[in-house]
Amino acid sequence: MPVKKEVCSTGIEELDMKMSGGIPLGSTVLVTGCSGSGKTTLCMQFLFNGARRGERGVFFTITEPLFKLTKNLEGFAFYDKKLIESGMVNIIDLRIISERLGLDTEKYTVEDAGALLDILKDIADELDVKRLVMDSITALCYRLQTREMIRDFIFKLGTSLAVMKCTTMLTSEVPPQTFKFSQYEIEEFISDGIFFLGDIDRKGDLIRTLQVIKMRGTDHSRTKFALNISAQRGIELVPLLKSTEFEAFLKR
Amino acid sequence: MVDAVIEGIRERIAAAIQVNQSVGIQVPENRHGDLLEAIFDSICRNTHTTWTYVTVSKTFDYLSKTFREGTKQNNVKFIDCISRAAGISDATNNCIYIESPVMLEKMILEILNNFKGMKRDLDKYIIIDSLSALMIYNDPEIIREFVSLVMNRSRAENIHVVSILVEEEMDSSKLIQLNDKIIVLRDSFID
């Protein structure tokens, strides 16, 4: 029986409703999906909505340069440049930090990854952030040389996040049309929750979907929803028409 | 004669939707235009009501040229599900374009968004023109599910649904049964 906990509202009404109000405070959520599934938009909306509620947030990017990221955001109504200028939303390029630390930005050793984790923690502490996003954990792990190093890094990351007391979203890239939550199959174990963003092929058109696979401490819905990305409203969810699933099953 | 038919249709629709029911209108292709004229006439006359017109059979461009007065009203918004797929993408404040008629969930979202924040006691209507055209692009099962979902949400939000079925386009007899009330238009009289 889930205990009523303090929650962190994503600000996406339908998504919060699926989780009895929001993500349990301090949780780490893996936002997993293929390219173009809406991971970055969802995370950004989470940060900007939080900032409007007075909760400072930080977005660590390792995949996209800052100018490109902010340019893409400008089209959304939830985006507010003032929240960035006032420091309520901080967007930080991890590659620049790596460079400043004198690390090889393409390949990390165990020590490099450890140093980077310490810096992330220091930044989060110093800014007193309540919401943290890392986009993406897959790209970060890609810079580690062996599976053992990746495993070690992910568990260290999990430990660091657990003590940070902020609600975290880690994006994870997976190939399209697969029901897999992560590239290295370890990321899900340090996560309290998983949002799975997928696609459904309906007569050649791709319908974006979202499913809350797991959310510890909540009585959450596991229904699959159709996800729409709108400039005016950002992420929107509506129940997915189930006949689609049946069609896809028949195709398989 | 045509005016009398349109007036008759308009009265029948008005009588049916007064009791807050979903209405399915089955119409032969050669009467489809008259039915639309009756609907746009209702939109023009009832300025205190709000309408969302989902078009799958005619483009918004066609409707605005044919029913100029009706489409210019402030109390109606259009959701055009076919123009984008046909490569037409005129920007207009009065119409939302959906990429493809198979994006049924997006249609539902746009319908609901259109009515969001409106007073509960305001008379609200959804026109789906037409279910039979939707069936050209989608499988019958998914359309049944779509109609069910739209109707259930509409009932919960006090919105009236009027769905049109053009006889010649598809055998949609099962679909029309989802409505609370059915009006059948013939070539020369109304059932």
Keywords:
heterodimer, A: 252 residues, alpha/beta, Rossmann fold, two-stranded antiparallel sheet, 11 strands, B: 191 residues, seven-stranded parallel beta sheet
Q: Give the overall pLDDT of chain A as a whole number.
A: 89
Specify the oligomeric state.
heterodimer
From the coordinates shown, what is the CATH architecture of chain B? 3-Layer(aba) Sandwich
Query: What percentage of amino acids of chain B are in beta strands?
Result: 15-25%
**Name of the CATH superfamily of chain B:** P-loop containing nucleotide triphosphate hydrolases
CATH architecture of the domain at 25-197 in chain A: 3-Layer(aba) Sandwich
- Beta-strand residue fraction of chain A: 25-35%
CATH fold-type name of the domain at 25-197 in chain A: Rossmann fold
SSE order of chain A in H/E notation?
EHEEHEHHEHHEHHEEEEEH
The secondary-structure class of chain A comes to alpha/beta
- Through-space gap between termini of chain A: 37 Å
Helix content of chain B: 40-55%
- How do the helices and strands follow one another from N- to C-terminus of chain B? HEHEHHEEHEHHEHE
Strands of the widest sheet of chain A, in order across it, are 5-4-6-7-3-8-9-10-11
Biggest pleated-sheet summary of chain A: 9 strands, mixed
Low-pLDDT residue spans of chain A? none
Mean pLDDT of chain B: 84
CATH class of chain B: Alpha Beta
Structure in words:
The complex is a heterodimer of chains A (252) and B (191). With 252 residues, chain A is α/β, with parallel strands linked by helices. Chain A has helices at residues 13-18, 39-52, 66-73, 81-85, 94-100, 110-127, 137-142, 147-164, 243-251; strands at 7-8, 23-24, 28-33, 57-61, 89-93, 131-135, 167-173, 193-202, 205-215, 224-230, 234-239. Chain A has a domain at 25-197: P-loop containing nucleotide triphosphate hydrolases (Rossmann fold, 3-Layer(aba) Sandwich). In chain A, the strands form two sheets. Chain A has a nine-stranded mixed sheet, with helices on both faces. Chain A has a two-stranded antiparallel ribbon with strand order 1-2. In chain A, a hairpin with a 3-residue loop joins β10 and β11. With 191 residues, chain B is of the alpha/beta class. In chain B, α1 crosses α2. The two termini of chain B are 17 Å apart. Chain A binds chain B through residues 202-203, 205, 207, 226, 228, 230, 233, 236, 238-244, 246-247, and chain B through 99-100, 102-106, 108-109, 112-113, 137-139, 141-142, 144-146, 149.
